[in-house]
Predict the structure.
Amino acid sequence: MKSLKKQRRVQIIAVAAVALVLSTGLIGYAMRDGINYFRSPSQVHADPPSPNEVFRLGGMVAEGSLQRGQGELISFTVTDFCSTVSVTYRGILPDLFGENEGTVATGRLVGDVFEASEILAKHDETYMPREVAAAVGAEGSPNAAAAGEHPECEYHGDYATRASNT
């Protein structure tokens, strides 16, 4: 009688372990397309993603770069005050989207242009997504970004330029 109970317990444990491994595998398989990595413009230039990789690009919309094309086509430039990436988007922009504002765009890099499928904008005057704040500097200051990982960048007014060795 004892061996029958012991054998039944071992069977239950084995079935539970197989079910746990199977459910973990199914969850991982289902999430493979739902994970989008965040990159700043500097990271995109330093390590370009593969053409099929969907990722999130974040930074500030450069002043004077917002252009509306025919229909719903919009193009603008995202900057982290060291590098810039041109972005195109077809659709309606969020109400709070604008120049000199933080944004996060989801899409893929085609050539040198980021084709966005979704655009997110900050939701009030003081909010900046954590990833965008980290990309432009610890305090959200462009000068902090220039002095951080990219000492060759200098911030001049609304734009950052590469420091010259002169």
In short: Strands lie at 37-39, 55-61, 67-68, 73-79, 84-90, 102-110, 113-121, 153-156, 159-162. The helical segments are 2-31, 41-46, 130-136, 142-147. Residues 2-31 form the longest helix (30 residues). The mean pLDDT is 77.
